[in-house]
Amino acid sequence: MSLDRRSFIAGSAALAAPLALPVQVFAQEKIVRFSLPQDFTRIYTFVTSEYNQGQRDYFTLVNDRGGVGGYKIVADITDHANDLPRAIEAYERGKREGAVLIDPLSTPVARALVPRALEDKINMITAYSGRSDAADGSAFPYVLPLSINYWTQAGLIIEQFKKTEKGSLKGKKIVFVHIDTPFGKEPLPILNVLAKKEGYELAAFPYTPPGNDQSAIWPQVRRARPDFVIFWGAGVGQTVALTEAIRNGLPMDRVSGSVWLSESDMDVVGREAAKGVMKVEPCVGGREPKVIKDILADVIGKGKGAGPENKVGTAYYNYGVQMATLMVEGVRKAAEKAPNGPVTGPWLNEGLRSITNFTADGLLPPTTITKDDHQGGGMGRIARWDGAKFVPITDWFSANQDVVWEEIRKNSDEFKKTGK
Amino acid sequence: MFYRRAGIRHTRYQDERQLFPLGFDRGLIIAVILVLLAAPFLFDRLYVSGYLLPWLIWTSAALGLNLLMGWSGQIHLGYGAVMGIGAYGSVHLVRLGVPLEIAMIAGGLLSATIGTMFGGAALRMKGIYLAMATLAMQYVVDFVISHSSVISGGSLATLQVPPVRFLGIPLQGDLPTYYLAFGVCFVITLFMLNVRRTSFGRALAALREKDYAAQILGISTFRYKLLAFWVSSFIGGVVGSLLAVTYLRAISPDQFHIELSIQILAMIIVGGLGSVLGPFFGTALILFAPIVLNNLLGAAAGTFGLSLPIDLRAHLPLMAYGALVIGFLLYEPLGLAKIYANFRNYLLVWPFRHAQR
Question: Which of A110, A135, A388, B252 is the most exposed place for a label (fewest CB within 10 A)?
Fold first, then answer.
C-alpha cells in the first residue's frame, strides 16, 4: 500500500495521540495507596473478579466510615493478565505513585516480584499464591501471604481424614489427583512426609494442564480403590475433576479439595451431585459474618457495590474481604505505632507484622502475624458442601505445623543462601 | 528535503555499500542510540525498567527468531523453549559460580545444541509440518524442565538468580541491567544488519525462496538449514539468560511456555518478517499496546467518572488491542516496518511525489 498525503496526516495524528497521556498528580491527603494489579482476563478470571470485588467493597466500607487511623485507603486496580511485563510495569507504576502494598494474586507474578519487593521494601501480599516458603518472615520480610499456604492446607486435610478414621490412617490409601504443574505438585513433599508418619499409602495421579480433559485419570483412581481422594487444581480443572469423580462413583464425602473450590464451581458440576465434597475454608463463607452484613447494609444497600450483588458472600468474595480486613488492620496498627507516618513500605510493614489475634469480628480464624510467621498461625477449617452451601464440619484448627515448617525452613534457607 | 536524495548520487562504491548510505538515516540512528544511552538519566525509572528494558530484551529475542523465520523461512513455534534452555543453563552455571560472561555464552551454546537437534526436523519437513515439530519441542522442553526438580529448583520450582557481575560491574539496580540489555541488543542488531550482506545471509534467502532451487545453485541445504537453527537458537539462548538475569531475576518453568513463543512470533509478524527494524516496532506494539490502552482507559474512567464493571474495564483494552493488531495487518500485511518504509519513501523526495528509481 502506498502512502498518500491524507493517510500520512491521519497516521501522524494517530501516533501523536497517546503521547498526550496525562500524568496524574494527586492531592496530598492522608491516604494509604494499595496497588492491586490482578489477572482479570487470562487464567484466574472469575476468581479474580470475585476476590477483587470483595476487596473493593470492604475498602469502600472503611473509607465511608472515615478511614482507619486517620487514613483513607486508595486502591489502584489494573489487569496484568498473568503477563510478566505487564505486571512489572504495573508494579513500577504503583511504586512511583507511592503505593506501599501490592497484591498481584498470581503465582508467576509474585515469584518474579519477590526480589523487587524485597529490594524496594514494598509489602507484597501473596494470599493463596506465590511462594509457600514466604511464610518464613525472617527470609521474606516484605512478602506476606497472611493466609494458610498449600502445605498447611494439605496438612489440615490429612488431619481431617485421620479424624474420620478415628485417629489412625494406618494401611489406608490416599489418592492425590493434581494438575501437572509446579503448583499442583507443591503439596507432595508434605503428603510424602505425612505418609511415613501416619502410615498411609499415597498414590499421586497427575493430569495435564489446563485439565479440561481428565477422563483417562479418574477410572484409574477408581481402580486404585482409595479410602480418600484429594484433588488439587484451579480454575477449569477443578470442575472437571469433580465431574469425573462423581461419574466414577467415588464417595463424595471422602473427597476433598484445597481452598480453590467455590459456589460457582458447584453450579457447573451440579449442586445436588456434588453433595458431600469437602474443602479447606480459610475464612467464614456466606453472608453471616458481621463484616459481610455491614457491607450488605452500608455498601451494597447504598448502591456503592463494586459488582453483582449475588456474588456477595461467595467463597472467593469472602477471601477478598478477608485479605482486605488484614491489610486495613495492618494500616490501623501502623497508624497506632506512628500516627504521622510517613506512609512508606516499612511503616506499613511494621503494622502488618504486629497483627495479633485478629478475627475481623468473626470472619477469620484468630490470626497473628509476627516477624517470623507470615502465615498467621496456620489455622483453617474443613467445610462440606450440602447441596446449597459449604457447611463447616470442624472448628478452626491447625495441624501438622511441625512438618510444614520444616519444609518452609528448608526452602527459605535455600533462598537466603542465593538471594542475598 | 530531509534525505536530500534528489540530485545526490554516490560516487564511490564504499558509500553505496554502507549500512546506511543516506546521511539522514545515519543521523537518525545515532540520535536514537544517544537517546537510549541517556534514557536512564532522561526518563523516570518507570519508563526505563518498565518499558525500555523489556523492549530491548524482547526485541533481541524477536531478532533471533526473525533470522530463522524471516531470513531462512523456517517456521519455529518453540522459541520460548529455546530461550528457556538458555536461561536455565546459564542460571545453573551462575549458581555454580561460573562468571556470567561465560555462563551467557554457555547458555547460548546449550540452546544452540538442543535447538539444532530439533531443527534437524526441518531437513525433512516444511511449513505447517515443521511448525508441529517445533511445537513438539516446546512441549518436550517444558515437560523436561518442570519434571526434573534438579533443573527447575525443588518443590517450589523457582530458581533464584544470585547476585552477578558483568565485566566486574555488579548487576544491581536499573543502570547496569539496562546497559547490559542495551549492549546485547546492540550487538544482535548489528549482527542482523550485516547478515544480509554475507554469503551466509544470501544462502539463507535462497533457502527461503525455494530450498531445492538453492540446492541446485550449490547451496548445501543441509548445512544452511542447520546453521540457521544454530545461530537463531544461540541468540535465543543468550537472550534467555539476559532475560533471566536482568529482568525476571527468578525463573520458573511457566515463564517459557508456549505463550512466550507465540508472543515473539506475533512480534515479528506484526513488525515485519525479514526486517531488522520490524521487531523493534512489533515488540513495542505487542508488549505495550495492552498496557497503554489499559492505562488510557483507566485515566479516562477516572477523569470522566465512568463506572465500568471491572470485567469490562479489563477486557475493553484487549478488544482494542486485537483490533489494533488486525488493523495494522490489514492496512499493511508486510508489517509495521513496511509502514515505516512507506513513510520514509514518501519523505525521501518530499515535497515531490515520486522517487526516481
Answer: A388
